[in-house]
Amino acid sequence: MYLTPQNILLTGATGLTGEHLLDRLLSEPTVQRVLAPTRRALAEHTHLDNPQGDLLTLLPMLGGKQDIAFCCLGTTIKQAGSQEAFRAVDYDMVLAVSQRARDLGARHFLLISAMGANPKSSVFYNRVKGEVEQALIAQNWPQLTIARPSLLIGDRLEPRFGERLLAPIMRWVPGKYRGIPACTLARALWRLALEEGEGVRIVESDELRRLGR
Q1: 7, 95, 155, 200: least CB-packed within 10 angstroms?
Q2: Measured between alpha carbons, how far is residue 112 from residues 41, 74, 115, 129 in Å?
Q3: Which residue ranges does the record assign to the NAD-dependent epimerase/dehydratase domain (predicted)?
C-alpha cells in the first residue's frame, strides 16, 4: 500500500542527493509543498518554500503541517574541520531536524546514513552514523527509514577527493559495496517514502540500487 504525501520537509537540499531528490519531489503531482530550508537560495518553484539562513536558526521558525521528512544532511571530517564539528552536523543537527519534523506532525522520517554505520565501530565516522541511527530509533517514530548507501557517485559543487578517486572502482564492486549514483538513491528514497508501514526499516545499498532503478 502506498501513501500520498502532500507536504514534505527536506533538509540538505543543496547536497548531492538532496538536489536530485528535490527535483523529483517538485515534479510529482501529488506533492503540494516542499519546505526546504537552505543557506543559499534555490531556484523558485510554485510548490517550493525555501527559507534561507542557518538551519538551526531556521528550524524553530518552520511552520505548516508536514507529512514526511527527508534528512539528506551530511559532511566529512575534512570539510567540517574537526571531529566535534562533524558530530555537530551528522548527529546534533540531524536530531534537531527530526525533532522539529515530529513537532510539525510528520509521521515518517527518512535519513541518509552510511554503509557500515555502527555505534560500536572503531571508525569515528561509522560510529557517529550508528549513534545517530540509535538516537532516531529511540524517538519511536511511527515510521523510520534509514538508508545506508555505499559510496555516492555524482558531481558535487565541492568535489570530495576520496570519492573522485574511488568512484571508477566502486562502480564495479559487487553487492552492497558497489557505488550508488546519487540520482538512483534519490529515486529509492522517494519510493520508500511512498510505502506505508510501521516501525524501523534499514535499507542497505544493494536494495537501494534495486529500488532506484
Answers
A1: 155
A2: 22, 8, 10, 10
A3: 8-113
Q: Annotate the chain with three-state secondary structure.
A: CECCCCEEEEECCCCHHHHHHHHHHHHCCCCCEEECCECCCCCCCCCEECCECCHHHHHHHCCCCCCEEEECCCCCHHHHCCHHHHHHHHHHHHHHHHHHHHHCCCCEEEEECCCCCCCCCCCHHHHHHHHHHHHHHHCCCCEEEEEECCCEECCCCCCCHHHHHHHHHHCCCCHHHCCEEHHHHHHHHHHHHHECCCEEEEEEHHHHHHHCC
Count, residues in the chain: 213
- Residue 1 CB burial class (10 angstroms; 0-12, 13-18, ≥19): exposed
For residue 7, which amino acid is it?
N
In the chain the first and final C-alpha atoms are separated, in Å, by 20
Q: Convert 193-205 to b/e letters by CB count within 10 Å (16 or more is b).
A: bbeeeeeeeebbb
The pTM assigned to this predicted structure is 0.88
Specify which residues 153 forms β-bridges with: 181
Q: What is the pLDDT of residues 130-167, one digit of tens each?
A: 999 999 999 999 999 999 999 888 654 554 444 454 44
